[in-house]
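Troubleshooting: if your tokenizer reports a length mismatch, compare your output against this known-good record of 148 residues.
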Amino acid sequence: MRDIKCHGISIGLERINSEFFLYVKAIGRLTHEDYEVITPLLDYALQGIKDPKVKALVDVEDFEGWELRAAWDDFKLALKHGNEFSRIAVVGEEKWQKVAARIASWFLSGDVQYFEEHDDALHWLAQPDNTEKSSRDSHHSTPVFPTH
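Known-good structure output:
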């Protein structure tokens, strides 16, 4: 019997108190075919929102990377929707995931923070956007571009 390896992206809508945020979980090694499915779903989810400033939690703990064409698809998706996010919390366990979050932040207008703990990421997302500096200093997150 062979091991079955799952891969793909799950997208959901979750709440912290009264505030909604986008939840994205990447699993396994993503393919171009994964992005052919996910891109129209994300387009549809964001099209009805006027001036969207969405908060997102991106869980990459089970993410193993991209095939080459899928990496290009991810880059195009970031360029297309990059200004629609106010905050993106990335939760992972590997050093390369932290580096990937740094690179992604170059193409996204919102604040991107990397976390190793899911609860820390949720706490940061729950903070009002106008307290970014103070919330960045008071949590156990790793700023994507440290100020020191």
